[in-house]
Amino acid sequence: MKTENFRQRIRRSLANETLQLALDANAARRKASRQVAFASLPDIQERRARAHTVKAEIVAHLEDYLTEFIRQVEANGIHVHRAANSAEAVKQVLALVQEAKSAPGHGLPDEPLIVAKSKSMVSEEIELNHALEAAGCRVVETDLGEYIVQLRGERPAHIITPAVHLRRQEVGALFAEKLGIPYTEDIPTLTDTARKVLREVFLNAQVGISGVNFGVVESGTLCLVTNEGNGRMVTTLPPVHIALMGIERLVPTLDDLALSLSLLPRSATGQKLSVYTSLLHAPLPGQTRHLILLDNGRLALRASPLAESLYCIRCGACLNACPVFRELGGHAYGSIYPGPIGSVISSALVDPQFDYLAQASSLCGACREVCPVDIDLPGLLLRVRAGGSPRRTQGDTKVREQREAEQREGAGIPLPVKVGLKSFRLAASIPRLFAVLQTLGGILTHLLSPRRAYLHLPAWTGWGYSKDFPRLAVRPFRARWQDVEQEVAEGHREQRTEGSEQGERREDEAEVGLIERFVQEVTALGGKVEQISAGELPARLQAFLAEAGAAQALTDDMTAPLLGEAAVRRPDPAIPVGVTGALCAIAETGSLVLVSGAGETLTASLLPPFHAVILKASQIVPTVAEALARPEVRHARAGVIITGPSRTADIEMTLTIGVHGPGKLVVFLVDDW
Amino acid sequence: MPETVQLFITCLIDSFFPHIGEAMVRVLNRAGVRVEFPAGQTCCGQPAFNAGLRAEARPMAEQTIRVFEQTTGDIVIPSGSCAAMIRHGYLELFRDDLPWLERAQALAGRVFELTEYLVDVRGVTDLGARWPGRLTYHPSCHLLRGLGVDRQPRLLLAAVQDAEIVELPEREDCCGFGGVFSVEHPELSAEFLKRKIANLEKTEAPALVVADTGCLMHIQGGLTRQGKPQRVVHIAEVLSHR
Questions:
Q1: How many Cβ contacts (< 8 angstroms) between chains A and B?
Q2: What's the mean pLDDT in B36-56?
Q3: The architecture CATH gives domain A79-296
């Protein structure tokens, strides 16, 4: 019966023209951008294999790694909670929210507490928003795409691009209705409207809730990647930050994190690095940080034949590559995890009924081809079909019995198909019977269709829905073999050994100097690098302030002396310019690495729409791995890798620069001083 | 002495398209290979395996293993999908049964898809074939991604005289067959098929070449239903044509 509903949902998706246009555009653009992004990674197959091994190691020794990770996270001053299932996780969040509500600083007790959320699939999995709202909180999703679907009262249609199913006209109408702005289809205007509304939310939220992309075992780092800047806001501004994380989202070392970061953004959004890669350790001054580690079926998956699905880093590449997702979009799946990976894990993590999703695959393997951790998704889909999803022990007996019945092989296959396959097996087991049936089939189909080689079958047969069925041969190959064998080979031998055609395709990338490469990358991202001498710096900074129409600038320890009286050291959101230093910069991605501890670097680089960074040429390192190896990264309360100006592509995948973080990014590259 | 190979004809070619089997034997003969046909073979078990009915797939796989164990030499299959089933699928099917797993592994090491065998094992690309007119090639999913075979059929086609080979747009997209999938989810399957046929029309080629019979009967079935003039041919038919 559930399958029936699924077919209805399939038909609805196929009939929705707006959705089909949006999904076609998504598939085409994501494919192209992913290809471009991976072109800059010559050793991609080797990296995939390494990432696969890293995750396999984590999953094989999950409890050990978790224990060590928790030890490190707690040593960093973060409170850790483990939740066995979604109910427990929700309860823990609600308790923390209650605590925040009764904390001094929160206004009137009757005023709803504001919870600012950045994108978290785990929070969707446990249906957290609903519970928070029931508890009287005002929950606001702050990722633009999530915000849009929240305003529409929907759930995300894609794990990376929540509003993938919508076009600008629908967003325009939604904002006109819900936010009271005049109707517009202009994406920058829509984005800016959301920015303004959400800015108030960030500044007034008592609790920020985020997901976690990677937890680093050796350092207890919580790594979070976002493009708009909302993830940084949510983890930086509210006095309480709660991070939600699936227990499997670990990597052993910062070096493994660098490897994972070379794969995740490329696979997800076609970027070398997301704009903001937050590295969270200790809470910031005046802040409390919690981490909730969720099992909710993951340990059961680990013990099942589907354990490999826990290697997933939730990049969404398999959704973009999947021809079924391209037809359906996320909602038709019914589970919050759609696409190939969703069809594998939804039964274990969301609802056992979702086994039937695995039937909706042609096993074309496009998902595996793009998976950055080389998960054998077609193989796992086959295991789900063979009844490999873990059983749930909780729940009443009736559910369990039903579940066990479904556990049997071929769960979700319609009965006629099952009977057909069983009969076929019986026939194929006896070659002579098989031959007789072949001939009978041949005669029958020729009687049914004497002239045409293909028969018209009715639509209800499934086969006949869109195509004709070939006649069987009256004399199958096995009957012809004797004749074929008589045919003497024509002695026409043309054996030409063909040389190895595999040309070395590696383009010898000319040795680009570190500075040159850095400038190239920043510029490509829409940032600007000005190479100047130390003497020019004060004048250039004044000019930068003038351009932004600002008399003052937010600064950190390093830059405050350079700005003298114009320097502001508190996080004042009214000041439009931030001027900061950086720990180092990364040539391969055009990134800047900023760490807390040297004043208000993190807020000065986040709140204002204009951000200038002062960098010495000698601070540029070649790779992400080398930047992450700097001890300052490990020892900072929090840090961020900034890769270009804040951006979003959540509406029709149209790139819009400047969302919650700075839209203008300038690097003053000083030879030395 | 010429090399002798065992032919695993596949149940689809055996039952529906025996002329493709005949073409394949001619092609192998021209490559200097002698062909034997073990009579006890029927189906590799892929339909049941892909449907999740492993208990049904097993006897068919065991039968296939038993039949070919009694032979020696390479086993050549005119289908990427069935070759992938034996090379990869059997290892999954028998992964908890060591004695059978070892037998499956031994068989997997002997199995080659037709174009893979011709190019990689025999080192042949030019079979003296001639096919006047335009051709375009659809790489079937299990051949392309399951076995990583793509260069081989392209080299073979490039050597066909008088044939103008044009690139199929979005060539790597699935045609929507997927075995039981096309019957169970005909609405989805139909969408893939629609796109594949539209892309075929863009090439203006009168014939689409495939190396897998599943795709062949699916796409040809769609073309016939829509009354389109194009036809789908198996690569063995092209390579045997003069």
A1: 248
A2: 94
A3: 3-Layer(aba) Sandwich (3.40)
